[in-house]
Target: Glycosyltransferase 2-like domain-containing protein
Amino acid sequence: MSKIQICVFAYNLEHHIEKSVNSIIKNQGNYSADIYIMANGCKDKTAEVAYKIAKKNKKVHVVELSIGDKSNAWNIFTYDYYDHSSIPIFVDGDLELENDAIKNIIDFHLSHPAYNSISSFPFEHGRSSIAWRKELLEKHQFTGNLYLLSQPFISKIISQDVKLPVGLIGDDSMLGYLSATNLEQNSDHPKQRIGVCQSAIFTYEPLAIFSIKDIKLYLRRRVRYSTRYMQQSSIVPNLKVHGLSAMPEDASTISKELLPAIRWKSSNLIFDIIAKHKLSN
Model:
């Protein structure tokens, strides 16, 4: 039986983390994973709830981090808690899984060991999720919500001391790039190196269009998406030219000269302006 380690990212998720972790446990099938809840920079009771879960289940471990940063949490799990022999799976702590999602993504990986990473599949909520599913299958995109890295690939990451930049928005985009290139310069082959498991289903709570709270959340997300675009458009071209040695340790050190132009003729305009202003200061 394969050894499994699951990293759960949790930032201010006191109302979601228990349901998320319980859904992970419920959807393992015949596998039994060690689950690491990475409570990063939480200002609410996420860690308190996580410890209660761990008290009831010895396979659940809580790691409290002072910095609220997903990329930093990924680095710490990978370099300090990953045991170098298990199959690692990464999950966002605000999701719930369905229909043996963990079992299915592991089985898919074992049947397709050549893939560096395995993406999951969003539950069919509506038009946007249908379009997302289509793109995943057509382009073999990387999903940061729930994904698996092969043991040889994560070992290669560790042996080459590749870390995600602290403060990077879009760990999924960067890990997708690393997976598709196999850590090699100018070798971008997502269809050969990123698998998509259609039976590894995750659900997420859709935003309510008449909720002030959700409207504010949507606006913050759009700024984050623009920030991700700015950061990735600065870092990845530099990696293609100079290799992984050009990966910044901290995303805040990205040169202003490398930031892309604002997308003036698009719905991203206002959010690009805000993101570029923040990254330039």
Q: What stands out?
A: DSSP finds ten helices and eight strands in the chain. The mean pLDDT is 92.
